[in-house]
Design a protein that fits this description.
Blueprint: H1 2-26, E1 37-44, E2 47-50, E3 54-58, E4 62-69, E5 73-77, E6 82-86, E7 92-97, E8 102-110, E9 115-124
Parallel strand pairs: 1-4, 3-9
Antiparallel strand pairs: 1-2, 4-7, 5-6, 5-8, 8-9
This protein binds copper (II) ion.
The site of copper (II) ion has 5 residues, from strand 8.
Length: 126
């Protein structure tokens, strides 16, 4: 009888371990550690003159975005409440964690009251 109980216990242990393996394996990208992302945008005449217009990240990644412009105003990432004043030729940096998934407009709010989406931040869910 003891031997049979030992066999049943071993079978249960194997099933539990197999289940745990499947659960952890299927969690996929959740196991990828956050990866720092750095972007540089040079904006001229309210357009990205150099740099990417789509800033890609995965949820949890630390992000830095360096920006230079040829006009005064403010760079704003709606939905992330990230804002920084810009002046012609003076580099500024936004630094934050991409803690929300989705697509967010990176806007130039001009001192002349213009409002232009110059790029987009795209954050993939983790
Ligand atoms: Cu805006």
């Amino acid at each position: 009888m003891l031997r049979r109980r030992a066999i049943v216990s071993a079978a249960i242990a194997i099933l539990v371990l197999a289940g745990l393996y499947l659960v952890f394996r299927s969690s996929g990208n959740g196991n990828v550690p956050p990866q720092p992302r750095a972007y540089q945008l040079a904006i001229r005449s309210r357009r990205v003159a150099s740099g990417s217009t789509v800033l890609e990240a995965r949820q949890g990644d630390p992000i830095t975005i360096g920006v230079t412009t040829d006009s005064a105003g403010m760079i704003s990432i709606h939905g992330y409440e990230q804002m920084v004043d810009v002046k012609p030729g003076q580099p500024v940096t936004l630094a934050f964690t991409a803690d929300r998934a989705g697509r967010y407009a990176v806007d130039l709010h001009g001192a002349d009251n213009s409002h232009t989406e110059v790029a987009a931040l795209e954050v993939q869910p983790r």
